[in-house]
């Protein structure tokens, strides 16, 4: 990999070593007039991440100035994200960096992908379908992907290896990139430096608030499929078995998954097995429910689900709640409480959530 690759993939080990070799201190990055273009691009990275699509520039290997600017904009964007220290922004920024890399990686040659993967201690070999990955690497990379197609049981295992296409390898690498970008974020920024970043932070804060009010912000920290209510679990199982869902159930499932923080892409992947699947139409519908038209839709309450015949096999927890989101938040609460009890820490227990999510 050369310096151009370091600029395009600034979180890889070679890139950080290269930045160190330049002798660039954080103070100089934040204050030097010569670094202004890198700071402006760093701010742009964060704004693009909030918008939902971080774009990488076209850079030629001979354009040293552009390479340096792009490379140094990355640590500055991390400083900005850390100064704002907002969980929604941090998640969105890490995802945007990872998705931008995925788009580049799926266009790369096999040799490049193999070298790139080795930076994450993944060593794919070429195969007839593209690549083969040792199953332990595959599990590590796919563990956060919710769609059934990524489950190991749905993959052919041959001599301990899983075959993946080039695009799938790039998608799996996206997960490792996201984790690496997330590492150490938010980092501690000395007050003096944070103050000097203020001129760049104002626009980001304003844009962030605007996007949050449009798209809503998930109150849930993680997506835990084993805690979903029976109605949603059943709908997902039907979708993945290729059974067409009623429109009302498809809406309820999508709104539920978006509200708990699942990404638009992961939901679209989930619909991929429906018999009438049309990716463009699905994206339009999911983004519409996510709030692209200005309205952020909430999933329906249990009584509405019952009215439309979408309440399926209610269990004991269902008797205590009136909304599928309350089912999920109570299950999460019990899981956390049990984990704390098992670790012997009972002091941090918060009160059990009540079933008070409002009607859609
Ligand atoms: S009672 Fe509510 S949460 Fe439970 S299955 Fe029915 S609709 Fe879903």
TrEMBL record:
[4Fe-4S] cluster binds at residues 231, 302, 311, 318. Pfam families: DNA_primase_lrg (PF04104), DNA_primase_lrg_N (PF26466). One of its GO terms (cellular component) is primosome complex. Keywords: 4Fe-4S, DNA replication, Iron, Iron-sulfur, Metal-binding, Primosome. It comes from the Archaea. Its cofactor is [4Fe-4S] cluster. Binds 1 [4Fe-4S] cluster. Residues 338-360 are annotated as: Disordered. Residues 223-321 form the DNA primase large subunit C-terminal domain. One of its GO terms (biological process) is DNA replication, synthesis of primer. Regulatory subunit of DNA primase, an RNA polymerase that catalyzes the synthesis of short RNA molecules used as primers for DNA polymerase during DNA replication. Stabilizes and modulates the activity of the small subunit, increasing the rate of DNA synthesis, and conferring RNA synthesis capability. The DNA polymerase activity may enable DNA primase to also catalyze primer extension after primer synthesis. May also play a role in DNA repair. Heterodimer of a small subunit (PriS) and a large subunit (PriL). PANTHER family: DNA PRIMASE LARGE SUBUNIT. Belongs to the eukaryotic-type primase large subunit family. This is DNA primase large subunit PriL. It comes from Methanolobus profundi. The gene is priL.
